[in-house]
Amino acid sequence: MTRNKIIEQSKSAFAEALFCLLKNEDFENITIKQLTLESGYSRRTYYRYFGSKTAILDEMFLKYLHSYRECLLSAPIRPEDISKRFIDFLWPYHQRVALLAQQNLLIPLLTRHISTIANTLLDIKVPWRQKKSDNRQYYYVIIYSIGGFCVLLNTIFKDDLPEKPQQISEALNSALAEIVLQVNRQ
Question: For 23-164, where are the alpha helices, taking DSSP H only?
Fold first, then answer.
């Protein structure tokens, strides 16, 4: 096994351990000892890769963001498909997202990475974004949108049983279509 695979395996084990512990413990009460016992790795390994429990969440989030970027690059994007593609990507992780929302960790996590999220989304070429030398206006719109989306995700997943993915994406598309209608009327 290569060194990179070993590193990734140990980081993943700590993320798995953290989410396993979050099912029964508050984030603040989870100890490094619990994480090492649950992960099967040593305290030294924990500190080699992470300085805090929050760093585990950050590492996991950035890994998922990279995967989401790859998902977006895999096929052409149409505006009406955005919410469905996002929810379909997110749904396999919905239990983790729910744990983060219920522990009031989701919005802080997304907020810490809002600039990275925006830059990742700006990096995806879409037909409706005009070519401009200054992407600042798009950056601000994306930041604004992400803020609302963070609150929406937190609201959806804070409940014990989120709706089915299709219902969520249909509700989002309906709301977005209504906003577009209102904007076009003005």
Answer: 32-39, 43-49, 53-73, 82-90, 94-102, 106-112, 114-123, 136-158
